[in-house]
Amino acid sequence: MREGLAQVFPRVWRYALSLTGARAEADDLAQAACLRAMERADQFSADGHLDRWVFRIAHNLWVSEIRKQKVRRGNGLIGIEVADIVDPTQNAEMQQQRRELLQSVLHLPEAQRHTVILVYVEGYSYRDAAMILDVPIGTVMSRLAAARATLSNKFRAEEKERDAR
Amino acid sequence: MRDRFFTDEELTAFLDGEEEFAPMEAIASALESDPALAKRLEALDLDRAMLAESFAGLQPDPAVLEHASAGARALAAGDSATLGGPLAGPGSRFGRLRGLWVGAAGGAVAAALVIGFALGSVVNPARQGWAEYVAAYQALYSNSTLAHIDLSTAEKQAQLDRVSASIGKSIAIDKLEVFPEVKFARSQILSFKGKPLIQLAFLTSTGEPLALCIMRASDPVDKAPELRRMEGLSTALWDQNGYRYILIGGQDDALIGRMSASLSGLDV
Prior knowledge:
A: elongated; B: 6-stranded antiparallel sheet; 6 strands
């Protein structure tokens, strides 16, 4: 678990950032997920995948606790802006196209955004993403298809605009 | 006979190389004569590498990693005095983190676990395109990912013929089975920036699988195998005869070194 948590922490933090939309809340959620994993270490099978397990814990913590609190406080489920989550000291030279792509993903509907990040950013298979999100594989597929259509359409439209200039 | 209609979900799975959820061969075959299908695929196109790169820069503050490390070590040692730490002032962002760690110290888990965050290993490396992408993918594999695959040599060769043809190669299976400690398990087609990439997966006796990934090189200059660690995995990268190779998996640098030398020597 030592090496595993060390490896997985920045990835879980990044996923937490996509869930919460705020760096400070991502800090808390990622740490809470790692601590929950430690508390439940006896439930983790040695031949399992620690990363998937911690991602699932983070997702469950978000759905069952933090998201509800944000909604109750009336400041949940708002779109995430790149400017709010990118640390300018770390990302001063992020290319415009990548920034636009990042923003487009962050503006996807919440369920699509989480699925896109798990599969296309974190590299999980459909089966693994379904396990982490606790949804059927068909749901993962339909979310990805919808997200691909949205993103592809947006970038083709922008390409056309650029070509027309 | 009327051609089969493929759903957007199936086309997405095809683009993602999810063989289990897409009729790969039927779609590939239909694409040869169906321009409308090609248009539909184009409408689902997404640059996965650029997407991954755009998120790669999102990293926690170094102080957060450091604090997590210190907290975990103190938790393991049962040292509640250290858990507060100099960053954990009341009401601060790190004060909340302190609360988390102190709360955990009071729980049953405390002293039993030694976490020891190896901060050096989590520093964000500059992404290097396909190799980083392959490494991240491989980091998710274990032998159990492949354990259910039980193909005969003839079946594996037939699969290998189909897969390697996608990048214009022909690979004999006996070139992949020269090391007694690794067993060739399966081959599959993936994609990187819309170009085919093949992954040949191997089971090992250590429980950590290996993968040999090959794609066409845009710059056909040969480079001898170079060893490094990627995603914490032993890795060899080389270019040969118009193809780029990456052999990755486990932590046995000597095995990866010997295998990469053999595979490049055999011009796989």
